[in-house]
Request: fold
Amino acid sequence: MNNTNFEVARTVDFMNSFFGFNLSDKSRKKEIVEARMMYAKIMKRHTRLSLAAIGRAINKDHATIIHYLNNFSWFKKSDVAFSNRFDLLTEMYDEFRETWIDDTKYEEDRKVFFLEKTVERLSEQKETYEKYIKRIQRIDSIVQLIEQRTPRGEEEYVEGKINRMFNAIVFNP
Reply:
């Protein structure tokens, strides 16, 4: 394997690991297209490969790579998440290139990245659950009262009574 093929193979492997999916997958999902765009930019920046060779590694043609490169700067300016992800990717890739063989630093950075992503996802879920809990707390005393006073097996009867009661109530805002 010559140096260029080695570099392409290592870069594609790095990118696949970083993003958690294969850049060559036949998909138009936003995250995969953006990952390919970042791959094209990094390969153009760090190698002297032709656009066709850059594309061949991820089963794309040179026209697609041109499209990725032409649109990259717009995404970098307008999408903060894309920009942050690319900056982190670039930083990790630069360190990775310095040590093609020593994967220990890369693995640590990759673990930190995935932990940060997990924390971000859990924070979003926490916010969703907190909103849901606030909605439930508003009617919690009513639910507890119904639960305490409803005999087992009479749930449908009580539900019917509650429905009739609410149908009879006219709310005046």
